[in-house]
């Protein structure tokens, strides 16, 4: 097969020349598919003799049914072992649900000022950092102790404004794992052409389901068309209802202002549609209440920084009562005196500034 242009750097070239281990992240999506096949061909061409593996982070029930079979096919095609890693505490759906439970407890105990959304966001992608990056790097360091490792990803600059700023390669903090983005300048058309040449079909979500991107069934980055296409697949229906239930119980829409429950309301029963309508009303009321909390009162690193004034404590008490009633929370600290006591307790528990520094 013709080897397309592979982006590299002197640091990556030196590591390959030293036969450093190469781990290729695969998700079942088109970019990691193309990157895996292209990099194996490239490594063969340059005579790389170090360890190689494909590595897949399993996100649990949020994934399509096909990623693991797709990754198995890639492993057979390339002749490289596939390693599957998972977060010990559960998949992404479990992470979203546990985050909401934690948010409730923190609010009820006045360990934060406002409720924390359960969902990951484009600006806070713990779905990637916790369930992919962390578990993959931990496994690589375990397998290859005291070695420098190359971690290949299929990131492309064309994918988004954020990824347009990506570099070809970058090291982690201790410079042990180098993330290499060899197809960073490939176009989407080039990716699909390369997959066709490889003889392995892409994930069916592209050509059969009509998705423009393949990650989770319902992704925080998905557009309306992809969310609609995903909801049309029977394999996604149970997950859809579970995610909408979390929207309803939390009053936080899946994509900020976009409710997943609005994508395919026909998949919900009558009580589910009623719960969604109630959640939207609760969300509006919650946001209106939270606006009464002034900026100097909001949670920041090191919070609390000071005691509240009586007026601020009264505002916070009123907001906490309203939100707790809206969402059925068992919150304490619902009046001025108890809020002052709680802030004093939190301030007394903070280490001295010399220790904190």
From TrEMBL:
<dbReference type="Pfam" id="PF01507">
    <property type="entry name" value="PAPS_reduct"/>
</dbReference>
<feature type="domain" description="Phosphoadenosine phosphosulphate reductase">
    <location>
        <begin position="23"/>
        <end position="216"/>
    </location>
</feature>
<protein>
    <submittedName>
        <fullName>PAPS_reduct domain-containing protein</fullName>
    </submittedName>
</protein>
<dbReference type="InterPro" id="IPR002500">
    <property type="entry name" value="PAPS_reduct_dom"/>
</dbReference>
<dbReference type="InterPro" id="IPR050128">
    <property type="entry name" value="Sulfate_adenylyltrnsfr_sub2"/>
</dbReference>
<dbReference type="InterPro" id="IPR014729">
    <property type="entry name" value="Rossmann-like_a/b/a_fold"/>
</dbReference>
């Amino acid at each position: 097969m013709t080897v397309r242009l592979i982006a590299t750097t002197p640091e990556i070239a030196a590591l390959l020349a030293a036969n450093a281990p190469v781990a290729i992240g695969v998700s079942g999506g088109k970019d990691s598919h193309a990157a895996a096949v292209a990099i194996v061909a490239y490594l063969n061409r340059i005579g790389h003799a170090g360890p190689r593996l494909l590595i897949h982070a399993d996100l649990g029930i949020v994934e399509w049914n096909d990623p693991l079979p797709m990754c198995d096919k890639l492993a057979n095609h390339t002749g490289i072992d596939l390693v599957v890693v998972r977060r010990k505490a559960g998949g992404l759906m479990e992470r979203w649900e546990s985050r909401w439970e934690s948010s409730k407890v923190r609010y009820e105990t006045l360990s934060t000022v406002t409720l924390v959304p359960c969902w990951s966001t484009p600006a806070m992608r713990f779905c990637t950092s916790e369930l992919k990056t962390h578990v993959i790097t931990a496994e690589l360091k375990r397998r290859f102790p005291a070695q420098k490792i190359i971690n290949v990803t299929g990131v492309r600059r064309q994918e988004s404004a954020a990824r347009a700023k990506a570099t070809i390669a970058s090291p982690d903090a201790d410079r042990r794992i180098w993330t290499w983005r060899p197809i960073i300048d490939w176009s989407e058309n080039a990716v699909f052409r390369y997959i066709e040449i490889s003889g392995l079909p892409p994930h069916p979500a592209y050509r059969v389901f009509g998705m423009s991107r393949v990650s989770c069934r319902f992704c925080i980055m998905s557009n309306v068309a992809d969310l609609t296409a995903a909801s049309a697949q029977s394999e996604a229906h149970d997950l859809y209802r579970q995610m909408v239930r979390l929207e309803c119980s939390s009053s936080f829409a899946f994509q900020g202002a976009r409710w997943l429950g609005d994508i395919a309301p026909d998949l919900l029963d009558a009580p589910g549609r009623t719960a969604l309508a109630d959640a939207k009303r609760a969300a509006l009321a919650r946001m209106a209440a939270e606006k009464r909390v002034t900026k100097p009162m909001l949670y920041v690193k090191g919070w609390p920084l000071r005691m509240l004034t009586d007026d601020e404590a009264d505002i916070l008490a009123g907001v906490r009562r309203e939100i707790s009633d809206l969402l059925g929370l068992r919150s304490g600290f619902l009046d001025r005196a108890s809020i002052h006591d709680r802030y004093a307790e939190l301030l007394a528990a903070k280490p001295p500034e010399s220790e904190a520094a």
